[in-house]
Amino acid sequence: MKINFNQKTKNLAKKIATIFSIVLLSASIFISGFIEGSRYGFKINLPSPFEKIVNKEKPKELPAGNMDVFWETWTTILEKYVDRDKLVTQKMIEGASRGLVDSLEDPHSEFLNSEQAQKLNEELSGEFYGVGMEITKKDGFLVVISPLPDTPAEKVGLKPNDRILKINGEETLNLSSLEAAELIRGPKNTSVSLVIFRSEWNEAKEIKIIREKISIPSVDWQMLDNKIAYLKIYNFNQPLSSKFYQIALEIFASQPRGLIIDLRNNPGGFLESVVEISGWFLDKGEVILKEDLGNEEIKIYRASGQGLLKNIPSVVLINEGTASASEILAGALRDNREVKLVGMRSFGKGSVQELVNLKNGEAVKITIAKWLTPKGIIIDKNGLNPDFEVKNDDELGSYSKVDLVKDKQLNKAIVELQKLLITN
Hints:
Strand order of the largest sheet: 10-11-12-15-16-19
Radius of gyration: 33 Å
Order of helices and strands: HHHEHEEEHEEHEEEEEHEHEEEHEEEEH
Number of helices: 10
CATH architecture of the domain at 219-423: Alpha-Beta Complex
CATH topology of the domain at 219-423: 2-enoyl-CoA Hydratase, Chain A, domain 1
CATH class of the domain at 219-423: Alpha Beta
Largest sheet: 6 strands, mixed
Number of strands: 19
CATH superfamily of the domain at 219-423: 2-enoyl-CoA Hydratase, Chain A, domain 1
Mean pLDDT: 83
Distance between the termini: 147 Å
Strand content: 15-25%
Structural class: alpha+beta
């Protein structure tokens, strides 16, 4: 038998080529599958951008904008970040929410996590642990609005407009007032170190303060000589309304000839509180303030109380620590009743913040309006200028007893009130 080696070789080569092609294809498929499977397996172990996130739906009404950049950033973090196994979804959401509020560039608006919100509510309720002072951001600096009476802050001599440069060695320039407050507060009998600068000092000073339980007073009064009632309102926080009701009745029953309302170092508080208190001094229906809510919308607040103290000749004391709600009351009394203001120019916080409680315990403290006095005077960043400017030579504590020797501002208020009583 004659064998055709050429044909046999060709057939063998063809079979080998076919087998090789199949092997090569299988290998390619395997390698491709391995790579893609690895990628898929890698990704499947990563959190999806929406995994375990509830309430993903956007609000029904939003200004024009594209959220793609947010979710792209979120996805990039989940897929690329080197320590992605340590990511905490809730912390990322809180950080994004905080950044959203920070984008407003408003020093009085802040996002609060549940712990921060609880601490703020404790403060507004009138009791917390710390050094006892109100602080805010002003011209980019963290400053003291006023020390609270008979507190560690007052005892070490802190004053309105003192700049707090450092807290326990940490720079405050990039801290919000809430973040700074958290650093200042702490357990009872522990200390906090503050680096303070005051305009009349040549250099900053370090002051150490021992924390104590802080109970914030709201209001007090006493009768001075010549039947002049002296009313001190320390703040407009939660306890004020109930306490003021009793004090207003006491003042009215004592039938004073005149009334001095001391709002010095009063850092403000709740808008609802100052509106209610203002009603004791004004006729029903008189304008207390005008709120500019933006978009040309103006909301007007009017007195709705009994006006029990409206006919008592009055003078108001203000100073650099008179802020926010206390400026509202001072402006309303001057614009409606031509009540004279005595002391120094007020702080100039002419905006209103609302504390909005969120679903999971978080909150947003947000500026909802800028306010004007009844005659349309803008207070924000300007303050109220007193009718009679008087500076005390000796700094008096916010909660110190009445001292007619050192307190030139109070003496001037008495003099102007007595002039008013003569003319009436």
